[in-house]
Sequence to fold (645 residues):
Amino acid sequence: MSVHEALRLLTLAFLAVMVMAVGSAFADETCQSPFLPKVTGQEDYIYVWTLGVKGVADGNDSMVTVDANPKSSNYGKIIHRAPVPGQHEAHHAGFTDDRRQLWAGGLDTSRIFIFDVATDPARPKLVKTITSFEKDTGGLVGPHTFYSLPGRMLITALSNNKDGGGRTGMAEYTNDGKFIRTIPMPKEAPYGYDVRVNINLNRMLTSSFAGKKNYMRPVGELLKDGEAMKQFGDSVVVWDFHARKPLQVLRVPGAPLELRWALLPNHHYAFTSTALTGQLVLIYRQDDGSWATKNIAEIGNTIPVDISIAPDDSKIYVNSYGDGTLRVYDVSNPFEGKLIHQVKLGEQANMVSTSWDGLRVYSTSSLLSKWDKPGDHWLKGFAWEGNQLVEKFTTDFSGVGRAHIMNFGAKSFGPR
Amino acid sequence: MMRTWGGRLAPLALAGLLVSAPVLAHETPRPAEEEFIKGAFNPSFVPPPPGSYDLPVLGKVGSFVLRDADGRRVSTAAIMRGKAAVVSFVYTACSDRLGCPLASAVLRDVQQRLRAADLADRAVLMTISFDAARDTPARLATYARALDADPALWQFLAPSSPSTLDVLLRSYGQDRAPVYDERGRFTGRYRHVLKVFLVDPSAQIRNVYSAGFLVPQVLINDIKTVLAE
Fold:
């Protein structure tokens, strides 16, 4: 057999790759870890980590399943609710690297709830609760981002149990819930919030928000406290991912929150938005290998919160808490963001997630229990039709609580 | 001159081990994946030097009696004793370009690097099949030959019973599930997240690598890091 023939056979074999989605998809399903297998087609379910509200259902935080498949008779409806005991300031959640478990955190109690989503993907089941996060980690408080790495979870924290301020760190646990280590944030950039890894560059970014004494305080009171308002993060840290060592601190004033790496391997940049200063910010690698930032769009005084990136890096979606609006920016030139579309969602908005194929966009309403405005809570589903995002459904959460982060599920990730 | 990533996998194709999966004509390789696989062998970063970082203990693995490519019963503990072990779970019929063939190509590269670094007597590579029914000793031997595996450095193994396989996979935290068609027939394929494990001389897992970060130079640096402790 000639070398040419061998390569032809290899090509044929490699063309079969997408038969097996697990472990082989590296485009975006919104903004998940590159180590996570993706839902590459139509998502069947959206798992919504939902804040419990006194007097609503049993009042507990819960993992709510919404049917997201347009072919289903339950499309857009809540089909399951898995409560956990009590209220914990339900906030973010993320899958393990095999997508068998969904870890969900409470910013108030620092509890971590682990749901089995593989045995019956429509019906997540609470299988373990980690109650020792503060003790394990040497005093970290407020587990925020749950980011899958091979065989383990990387978890950012927001605060500490000494003064409730923003000095914090990250923690690692094995997939079966055993504590591995704590990674403190650097002294010159002590605040924490999100974490994202670029595997092509061996670089990791972290962002910065605020400590517990700020995020658990009523927002009206907080805004009037000048000293407290100074205690927000102003940094993005660039790390050596493999070594888990900080390399460079970038000053990004105004609480940079969610981080989104561009997905194409030759795109050596990421985006964030600043909650207090309303900027869409590019974080990019310079020719000498160091990193820099540039404000690329003025979102305005709207308190932008979650952002999501299109699979081809052409667009950034920005949800704003202040005016309840979803804005879409063209970032095909990453150094200049252009507002191309916007949708008024409600009184407030928080999370926004894009499907892997970029065709569908989902939003939820709740931000923090003490910052939410009076009004409805919901999940809304949109689809691109031409150059417009068209609403496909609104799921009313008034009977279960307040809708926070979304993670996609699929029947194909069923029993293993 | 760097060999292409396709060239690195060519021995498996020549041995007829990479052509058993059906082809979806409308699916074409994604440019991102091409770049990504190239990046495993020619990364666009310099991995941190050995000993400059921590590799915390992730767990301890048990000892298992498996069957090798000569059909002999062997103990994994005996193979690994006193050495750093790189353990990869595969099935030889796997054609997922970011799956088993990539893992085996990376281990082949690591084998060469271990020799070059004079570490061949301090480390061992283990490729363990989770498809014992089809991965007979003869097939494992063919697979090993196609990869130029040095029997003194790289072992090809399979469990001899389903119960051993279950305990083995649980011990490492490796998932694996048969894929069935609409009629409930086994397709010959398994769904699994590609994982390669670094086990230190005390049988402790010190790192896990998946298709996102399976870089030979990173593996070598990690092996040197645990051997220097």
